[in-house]
Design goal:
It contains 3 helices and 10 strands; from the N terminus they run H-E-E-E-H-E-E-E-E-E-E-H-E. With 196 residues, the chain is mostly beta strands.
Length: 196
Amino acid sequence: MSKGLTYDQLFPGRFVKAGEFGGKPVTLTIKDVYLDDLESESGATERKAIVSFERTARELVLNKTNAQCLVAMWGPDSGEWVGKRVTLTPESDPSGLSDSGLCIRVKGSPDIDKTVTATIKLPRRRPITRKLVPTKGASAEPDGDAFGGGEDGACVAVCDECGQVVDLTPDVTADDVADMVCGACGGSMRMGGDGA
């Protein structure tokens, strides 16, 4: 009997989820770090930090724990993070907020030479220490989309409204995508993945 899909794999979207890692670390190259207004569970809009990666349209909502790990490795200027490789890993989520019971944590980077200690300071909590390790020899950056959004050399379109990801054939251009409308919500589409 073949292994089925995880809960997170059944409901993909704009943002990567820990359940899509297959229980293994994934190394990705940071393409951009920016702020975006996202809708919360309550319907309110919250400004969040977003990390985009090369070779995938999927993005990461950057929480304070992971942000402090990136700061420990490369400094407080997020512009210095661009082009760096980061190894992300799924871990058990003690908060109970995740549908899959997992969260994404920074494990380290192939771009650091020695272990880096990050002291994580969160409001109303004791500081915790995380050891960020050189991940040379850890899972290499995958060909194509690490999270199932296309094969090597393939492109995807991403809805700016709901995050729906659509695989494209290699002959589709950015102009074609600009004319597309999301089938799920009617929002505008943008080129993602290798065609970005």
